[in-house]
Amino acid sequence: MTDATVEASNLSKSFGDKQVLQDMSFGVSPGDVIGVLGKNGAGKTTLLELMLGFTPPSAGAVRVFGHDSYSLPGDIKVRVGFVPQQDELLDQLTVGDQLRVIASFYPHWDSALIDRLCGEWGVNVHARIKSMSVGERQKLSILLAFGHKPELLILDEPVASLDPIARRQFLEQLLTISADGERSIVFSSHIVSDIERLANRIWILKEGRLDWQGDLDSLKESIVRLHIRSTAPELPAFKIPGVLNLRRDGAFATAVVRDWTPEAQETLEKNASVQIEVETLGLEEIFVELHR
Amino acid sequence: MKAVARLVWSYFTGTPVLRACTIGGLVLMIVDFYILMTQPHSGEKLWLAVMGLSFFFIGSALMPVMFGRLARSHAIGVLPGGRLKLLISMFVTILVVAIPVGALAPASFISGNSSVPEIMKDPRARDYVLQLTGITFTWVVLFASWMYLAMWFLTSQRNMAGLFKGLLVITLVIFAPAREVRDLTVTLSWNLQQIAVLWTVFGAGFLLWPRFKVARARRNRGLSNSLGRALAGKTMGREFDVLLGTSNPWLLTAALLLPLILATRFVGEFPAVWLFFLTIFSVVTGALSGQAGERSRALWLRGDWSRASLFAAVERSIWRQNFHVLGALMLFNIGIGVYAHFSATLLMTGVPLLVLGTLLSTYLGLMITRGLRWLEILSGIGVMLLLMFLAVFVAREDVELVTVFSLEFGLAGIAIALRFIARRRWTQIDWMMCRPDRALTARGA
Fold it and tell me: Which of A185, A238, B122, B147 has the highest CB neighbour count under 10 A?
């Protein structure tokens, strides 16, 4: 047995001829709050559903609490919570009924927590699901994943349909859940500010690969914008290691680079006789630059 | 008009397979029409046209699906004249499907009797041919309208209400126009009247539905909430069935029996027709298992089951529902049989047929773990044809019990094979490939 919540090694997934994920290896430890970023179709949902055993990997393996995710036993499943991208609610039931139905599958269901959250989030337990808005349905889906207090919570774009107030309440709740440092949360979102606020680790998916995995601070230190200035009227020719994007304009140039280090800066300044000013980027800018 | 034409074009050519069916069907019908018109006494060559017509009809299979999705989409509400154009496209499609039959029926008559110039010289024969064309064409329009309507209810509203409406439409088809064909009372004017009434009612309902829905939602909100409260707690102990959609077999029983009772009023005295429709209804019972794959996704993380043991649990749950419905159907079959003095042989062979109908459709449904593909479609069509053939065959007076039971044993063998395939598929079920089609469950028509 291992202490890691999730471990994946050389994970690949394809649907027919289409390779969605390629050779991914990663780990999730207790206390990790991982934000998964990627363009539409980057494979975020596939990755999350592979971790939950909804779909088999084409190669490699994912282990959740030490068990192969494709054949998770019941005692492991009760430690996992999931909010799908598209809700799986039963239209004909009321909110209360739906909560009771799902609660019955778990030995430990925190009714008090759910009652409290229903009140705080303005979820009417007597309302029929059929008559609820998309945002209200999303709130209910989140509640259904919280009730058994999972040790691993996986959320696939959970805030996409929520209004700003509900989003804030939801994020606060996630922060509360993650505060004990024993639970792991993996969530995907297109709202980069939410990921920046909540996540302590970032996964960036690009073309089916984990283009970046690490903590947010390292990411911000690694991918930076350089403002390069020459004392001569024209910038000399030079090569920047790890350049993602370079724009020259006379004696000036702007470059976005990855894996930037003070040593690299020193070498470049010396070899090209230029002055370099380093600008730290926000997560959204980093994401955009990585996908240019 | 451009939008309507584009829609109709898409219905017939939306996918490569449907395009091939449409073109193939048209070619076959044109070839057959040419043969019929140029070679005298060639009525037996009609099989080519029947094949062509079948392909052409299959070619339009996208119509009920697209119609259902568009009708339920929010986009149709903001497109200029969206609902009206959609409605017209459906009507035009039906007319297009009916045209070949309207043309081939008189062609077949002419080729079987005389040549075209001779027929045209005789006013009585000419009138007869024209009337035959009109009656055939309008009858097909009427029949196709009902059938598409039933298909729309059954496929787009994948719930009990849709099932009930679909079966009710099938029942109405038994009464009109199928009954008229049997009684030889069909006339052109009566067909036209029926088409006018059907399309006026359906068209008005379809166009006014958004307004009706808003009014109904306003009126029923209180009722809906109190109903919700009344039903609360009734799911206790049957949560698995609730998620799978098998928790209320009585609702399904009622949805099946009500149209059946109506059908009995029309066809109760004809054993073959009676058993034929009862068999179709028994198939519907099992066919609901087709949603089990996608619904089981919500169960995967909520219990101590592997994929194989989940299949076993799903199978048990479905059969709990089937037993209720099947029991009611069998009792109904026996009751009507005794009341209408059907032969003991018919009852003896009819009951296993109902069980087989449910058995086969249940496992055909459970086989659907990656959407509908050719194997499922062909197996479904094959099984339905076999069951329909057997239902009619069993009702023959000179039927031999040994033959019937042999055929029924054959079907039981097929059911075992289907179960084997279904179970094997479930042990590898991939819920990313087997998930509810949100377009079908999208709220608001």
Answer: A185
Contacts of A15 in chain B (CB under 8 A): 432-433
Same structural domain for residues B108 and B67?
A: yes
- Cα–Cα nearest to B71, from B57, B92, B85, B91: B85
Among all chains, which residue has been given the structure tokens 């993996």?
A186
Same domain, B356 and B242: yes
Which CATH number is A6-219's, of 3.40.50.300, 3.40.630.30, 3.30.230.10, 2.40.50.1070? 3.40.50.300
A41 to chain B, any CB pair closer than 8 A? The answer is no
Cα three-residue angle A149-A155-A161, rounded to 5 degrees: 115
Higher pLDDT, B375 or B218: B375
Which has more confidence, A108 or B181?
A: A108
SS3 category, A182 = coil
Using a CB-CB cut-off of 8 Å, the residues of chain A touching B217 are 131
Res B427 pLDDT > 90: yes
Give per-residue burial for A126-157: e unless 16+ CB within 10 Å, then b: ebbbbbbeeebbbbbbbbbbbbbbbbbbbbbb
Listed residue (A111, A97, A189) closest to A146, CA to CA: A111
- The CA-to-CA distance between both ends of chain A, in Å, stands at 42
> Which are the contacts of B235, defined by CB distance < 8 A and separation ≥ 6?
A93, A97, A100, A101, B242, B247
AA letter at B195: I
Which pLDDT band holds residue B220 (cuts at 50, 70, 90)? low
* Closest alpha carbon within chain A to B303: A74
Among residues B180, B213, B246, the one where a domain terminates is B213
User: Residues B140, B201: one domain?
Assistant: yes
Please check whether residues B313 and B387 belong to one and the same domain: yes
Same domain flag for B249 and B126: no
User: What's the complex ipTM?
Assistant: 0.84
Between B232, B239, B242, which is nearest A94 by CB? B232
**Alpha-carbon gap, residue B143 to B213, rounded angstroms:** 28
Q: How far is A200 from chain B (nearest CA, A)?
A: 26
3-class DSSP assignment, residue A7: strand
- 3-state DSSP of A242-274: CEEEEEEECCEEEEEECCCCHHHHHHHHHHHCE
Query: Above 70 in pLDDT, residue A236?
Result: yes
Q: Specify whether B433 is located in the same domain as B339.
A: yes
Helix count and strand count (H, E) for chain A = 10, 14
Is this structure's pTM higher than 0.80?
A: no
Smallest CA–CA separation between A57 and chain B, in Å? 10
**B229 touches A: beta carbon within 8 Å:** yes
